[in-house]
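In response to the reviewer comment on reproducibility (Comment 2.3), we provide here a single inverse folding case reported in full, input and output, so that an independent group could reproduce the run without further information from us. The structure tokens appear first.
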């Protein structure tokens, strides 16, 4: 993070394998790294990756998404550290810290949807619920870039397409003015 801050690059708060609080702490630490490098972080320098599913109602969204999420969390996240972090990706101390956090907070270790939802691993619900949660996360974390993952596990294509369409039509337009950096010569 220090190197990224010194270069004034964007730091992506990834992966979505960590609960919201750990991702918020990572963004906070990156902001401190930017301060140490002599400037205030811009919203556009903090990226956020999150699984999103939108349906007409909260109940419909959960019913459609949840079984595919559990398939993903319990079957597809069984990666080894070598697969997840190629050599040179990060320092040894960072790898050790990440592995410890992953063992403690892996989504596959959770047993209820309420735990998944409360930890903020994904944002699932009606357009209004998704908008509210993303806006809340953006304000708490300061991210200005978002990478939305609309596909999960073995979800049918039509679910993914429906979710993306609802997000594009009913959620995204309402998020456009959240954490937008002021245009200035010093921002470049």
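Designed residues, in position order:
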């Amino acid at each position: 993070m220090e190197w990224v801050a010194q270069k004034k690059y964007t730091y992506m708060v990834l992966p979505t394998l960590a609960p919201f609080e750990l991702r918020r702490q990572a963004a906070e630490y990156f902001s401190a790294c930017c301060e140490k490098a002599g400037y205030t972080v811009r919203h556009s320098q903090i990226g956020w990756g999150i699984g999103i599913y939108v349906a007409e109602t909260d109940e419909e969204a959960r019913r459609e998404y949840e079984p595919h999420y559990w398939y993903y969390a319990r079957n597809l996240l069984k990666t080894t550290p070598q697969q997840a972090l190629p050599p040179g990706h990060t320092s040894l101390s960072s790898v050790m810290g990440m592995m410890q956090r992953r063992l403690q907070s892996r989504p596959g270790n959770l047993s209820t949807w309420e735990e998944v939802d409360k930890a903020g691993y994904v944002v699932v619900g009606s357009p209004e619920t998704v908008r509210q949660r993303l806006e809340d996360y953006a304000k708490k974390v300061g991210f200005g870039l978002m990478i939305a993952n609309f596909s999960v596990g073995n979800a049918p294509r039509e679910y993914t397409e429906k979710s993306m369409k609802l997000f594009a039509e009913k959620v995204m337009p309402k998020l456009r003015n959240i954490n937008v950096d002021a245009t200035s010569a010093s921002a470049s």
